[in-house]
Amino acid sequence: MKPVKPVKRVAVTGAAGQIAYSLLFRVARGDLLGDDQPVILQLLELPQALDALRGVVMELEDCAFPLLQSVEISDDPRVAFRDVDYALLVGSRPRTKGMERRDLLAANAAIFRTQGQALNDVASRDVKVLVVGNPANTNALITRRFAPELPADAITAMIRLDHNRAVSKLAARCGVPVASVNRMVVWGNHSPTMYPDYRYAQIGQDSARALLADERWNRDVFIPEVARRGTAIIEARGASSAASAANAAIDQMRDWVYGSAGQWVSMSVPSDGSYGIPEGLMFGVPVICRNGAFERVTGLEIDALSRERIDASVRELMEEADAVDALFSAGAR
Ligand code: NAD
Ligand code: LMR
């Protein structure tokens, strides 16, 4: 038997929602932090969803997970985030048919301001925060803005679902197992402007571009289908992706905590100004995770198509950042 570690506190918001219905059970059974890491779940919901959340807690209890020490629920972020080591910010309103993410900006700005302030005040000083709720990049920007006492790289947004989608699609096209694909990159916003980029991808020891010299497939199939996959799922299911989103949240946070074993993974992190991405913007970039931190992969060549795609996400995120500035300065008057 492995030695038992000191307990870790994991906050999940939107805990009565669809993504959480997959995520909570996987965290409780050890998929996030490992099978020797006891956890306390600290769950945040809106007051009107607390009854439903009590039902989810009953189900968690009924699983008799050995690692799950206790579950606490609250509608107050200052309670739910107290001393947390990890925070998965899932709660927000999901996009429904016909809506674009920017429509959700104003509704979500207030949520992530309050939650950023609460994390700033009561979370562990080493907390790792992953924003999943859309518009994820801008929600993470807001959270960071209102949590100035946390380290600059403590807050990231999820682009791992897009990364996983890109890996899966490339592997299928090349007829290889997903595990043989490394160095995939998804740049930018978690929105249709994102740029899935396999120029540097390797399949085993080989370059994917050498194996698959099909620029038309890249431009006309790979990029648009990865970028629009979330919309395709909403159209097919009538609801946004849930189990795959929970899986991606676990992948991104687990790699951040335990390392990515030398693999490149995509994370939306505060830009350091490289690749012409304005400093501070929450932007999907390639990173390697080790020792509980992420290191940005630098020095990649940006060709004309890449420049055009990256700039489209920069423009979109700058517009969202400006809209947020306007919202908050209007509120301050
Ligand atoms: P859902 O509607 O099933 O659940 C959301 C839950 O959040 C609801 O139970 C709601 O009561 C709760 N909530 C709303 N405001 C809250 C607040 N202020 N504090 C605490 N809880 C609050 O939605 P879902 O399917 O679980 O999706 C959640 C979010 O994740 C959506 O914004 C969705 O668009 C987004 N999403 C992101 C990705 C990604 O890759 N980043 C992928 C899929 C979905
Ligand atoms: C996804 O990529 O599946 C979701 O982010 C889609 C959405 O807008 O909820």
What is the compact description of this entry?
The chain has helices at 18-28, 50-63, 77-80, 105-122, 136-145, 160-174, 208-211, 215-227, 229-237, 243-258, 304-332; strands spanning 8-13, 39-44, 68-74, 86-89, 128-131, 155-157, 181-182, 185-187, 195-197, 202-203, 206-207, 265-270, 282-290, 293-296.
What key attributes describe this structure?
alpha/beta, Rossmann fold, L-2-Hydroxyisocaproate Dehydrogenase, Chain A, domain 2, 2 domains, 3-stranded antiparallel β-sheet, binds nicotinamide-adenine-dinucleotide, Malate dehydrogenase, Lactate/malate_DH_C
Which helices and strands occur, and which strands form pairs?
Elements (H helix, E strand, L loop, with lengths): L7 E6 L4 H11 L10 E6 L5 H14 L4 E7 L2 H4 L5 E4 L15 H18 L5 E4 L4 H10 L9 E3 L2 H15 L6 E2 L2 E3 L7 E3 L4 E2 L2 E2 H4 L3 H13 L1 H9 L5 H16 L6 E6 L11 E9 L2 E4 L7 H29 L1
Parallel strand pairs: 1-2, 1-4, 2-3, 4-5, 5-6
Antiparallel strand pairs: 7-10, 8-9, 10-11, 12-13, 13-14
Helix pairs in contact: 1-10, 4-5, 5-11, 6-8
